Description:
The chain has helices spanning 2-16, 60-63; strands at 20-27, 32-34, 43-46, 71-76. The protein is globular. The protein starts with a helix and ends with a strand. Strands 1, 2, 3 and 4 form a 4-stranded antiparallel beta sheet that branches. The protein is an alpha+beta fold. It has 2 helices and 4 strands, in the order αβββαβ.
Amino acid sequence: xxxxxxxxxxxxxxxxxxxxxxxxxxxxxxxxxxxxxxxxxxxxxxxxxxxxxxxxxxxxxxxxxxxxxxxxxxxxx
Length: 77
């Protein structure tokens, strides 16, 4: 039982450390717009893979930029 609890504790610690900052770009046929600066990522402490970020994960300012024909592409900072 102690081994199981130890393994679960290690997994929980790993999961807690898996949050990342994501830099996102709004891409369209006309232009690509970076939604980040060199010092500020688009999303901080995202709990998941940056490639899975959706419009709903963005702040309202950025979410308003994602309209039909614009693709959101995010990578880990």
